[in-house]
Amino acid sequence: MSSIAKQSSLVLSKHDLKLPLQETVTAGQTVKNKRFVEVSYRLGFDALQRSINPGAHYLPVPNVQKSLLNEGFEAFCFWAAEQKGLTLDPATDFAAFQQLGESRFLMVERMETVRTLFRRPLEMWLVYDRALYLQQHGFETAVTTFCARELTPRNILISATRKG
Predict the structure, then answer these.
(1) Confidence label for 26 from pLDDT (cuts 50, 70 and 90)
(2) From CA 49, how far away is CA 87, in angstroms rounded?
(3) How far is CA 161 from the centre of its chain?
(4) What residues does each domain of the chain span?
(5) What is the DSSP string of 65-90?
(6) I need a labelling partner for 30 at 20 to 30 A (CA). Which of 10, 77, 134, 160 fits?
(7) Collapsing DSSP states into helix, strand and coil, what is residue 149?
(8) Residue among 157, 151, 120, 146 at smallest CA distance from 19
(9) What span, in angstroms and rounded, lies between the C-alpha atoms of 117 and 123?
(10) What pLDDT score does 30 carry?
(11) Which of 60, 59, 79, 61 is nearest to 69 (CA)?
């Protein structure tokens, strides 16, 4: 937004801009467990659908009612296949694909760990860019935190007052 940031060689995609918003420091263990189940089910189903259609790409599945996750991986796969117009063989080794989904989840988590190193610096870069933009448009600005990060990772305040 600021003229200084526009001159920067840093180019951010929409995906990059979402990175600071993806932090979950307040989530309890139950939420983390549900995320593990859902994401590993999705990754396991992805492996299953790719085994049916070699050369296929990731097939996004719509939002699922969380109660379906309690019915197990096989029920999730049949639901997801129905959503995508696929037919599954009931003799499929669902346990193997579930295990594959869980191991893929752990790999994704390790890759995400590297991305998390850039989350706060990117967020601060964006915050200071906004503060500079406001300054360039006649505001006095101050950047502060208003609570502990453990309460919410969105704890930055840009205070701006129009000059004059």
Answers:
(1) low
(2) 10
(3) 34
(4) 3-21+118-162, 27-116
(5) -HHHHTT-HHHHHHHHHHHTT----T
(6) 77
(7) coil
(8) 120
(9) 11
(10) 83
(11) 79
